[in-house]
Amino acid sequence: MKTKKIAAILLCTTVLLGTGIILNSCNKHDDEPESEWNNNNDDNGYNNGNNNGGNDNGGSDNGGNDNGGESGALSAPTGFNASQTSSYVKLTWNAVRGASGYYVGRSMSPSDDYSIIAKTTSTSYSDYEVTSGNTYYYAVTALNSSGAYGELATTAITFKGDGGSNNGGNNGGNNNSTVSAPTGVTAINEGSAMVPNIVIRWNEVSGAASYKIYRSSSANGSYSLIGTREYGMTVYGDQNPLNGTNYYKVSAISSSGKESEKSAYASATYEKDAVSPCPPSLTGTATSTQITMRWSYSTSNGCGKPTKVTVKVYNPMGGQWAEMETLSASTTSYSFAFGMWADSEGFVKMGILVENDYGTAAKQIIYNYKTKKWY
Q1: For position 117, what pLDDT does the model report?
Q2: Taking burial as the number of CB atoms within 10 A of a residue's CB, which of 114, 270, 280, 355 is the most buried?
Q3: CA distance 24 to 8
Q4: What integer pLDDT is reported at residue 150 of this predicted model?
Q5: Fold of domain 186-270
Q6: Are 234 and 204 in contact (CB under 8 A)?
Q7: How many CA atoms lie within 13 A of 273 on its CB side?
Q8: CATH fold of 2-158
């Protein structure tokens, strides 16, 4: 086993973990000094599947030698070992004091490029995504409850199994196995009619490399893929939901690309018209004694559908608006004799009020029967 500072291969991983995104690998920076490695072991970065030579008893991270002044850093797991059966590689390591979990990484070359293949609270992991004849390079690092990451331990093994059936282990299955379906799926409408956002959440799946999110208009209907999330991200926002009830399912994808069964569904409702109406468009025509108003409703995004319309005319004698009539929203015109509503200068003020369960909007126009002008 070989240890090194986490900065060398998880510097970019640490940053990306903060956003919930894990890249397939993170390279050591060009300016990372070779002294970051503890080279007490073999030069090619692995020990052919065991820790019998160059183990942690000499030149290890014990005693605080490779911490580089990083206060409170978790130490590298000791005793990191890789063994194999006919169908999987078994990784084991000793618990790290203060650790709340561990990340396991894998690479196909003795470099600093590791793909994160698991997050676990156990001190062992079984990798079934292996092929006979390939050499696999593994890394493990501890993390604490505040999100701090420690140093890495690395090892490697050449897998000589036959890819046979599962003989046990904590992941189950063989090379054709898939990860478990996500559990705890929920869907909550955290947006509005104008800014829709149904948020889907689920529990993390051990061994998953990514997730797929599906949506349907009915619980038992056909589900269509609407998005994906990388490992470490267990939340998705649907910002273009269907009008009505939306049903969601989530699947997990293994590092080899195999997809799990879909989860149980969760649902949330979006109503695009659950907002107040926008001000209508209002025009008028007049004869010598009568005015006809005509209007139309806005169908723009964020404008609710009116359920009723109230026609109003200003009473110059009383100095207030009078309600002429309340109409259904399907009515789009209204005529009335304007004589009693004109003031001494010939002005007639009129308008409509449109409303629904979420609010109201109004529009006003003015006509002067003496000048025959509209305002």
Answers
A1: 87
A2: 114
A3: 16
A4: 84
A5: Immunoglobulin-like (2.60.40)
A6: yes
A7: 11
A8: Immunoglobulin-like (2.60.40)
Q: Cβ(211)–Cβ(252) under 8 Å? A: yes
Burial of 120 (0-12, 13-18, 19+ CB in 10 A): middle
Tallying the residues shown for the chain, one arrives at 375
What pLDDT does 256 receive? 77
Reported as a pLDDT band with limits 50, 70 and 90, residue 187 is: very high
Numbered ranges of CATH 2.60.40.10 in the chain: 2-158, 186-270, 281-374
What is the biggest distance separating any 2 CA atoms in the chain, rounded to whole angstroms? 108
For residues 82 and 75, the answer to whether their CB atoms sit within 8 Å is: no
Residue 145 CB: number of other CB atoms within 10 A? 9
Q: How confident is the model at residue 245 (pLDDT cuts 50, 70, 90)?
A: very high
Q: DSSP assignment, residue 16?
A: H
d(CA 252, CA 203): 11
242's CB contacts (< 8 A; 6+ apart) are: 215, 217, 270
The per-residue pLDDT of the chain, averaged, comes to: 78
Identify whether the C-beta of residue 331 lies closer than 8 Å to the C-beta of residue 312.
Answer: no
pTM above 0.85, yes or no: no
Contact 328, 308 (CB under 8 A): yes
Examine the pLDDT at 16 and tell me if it is beyond 60. Answer: no
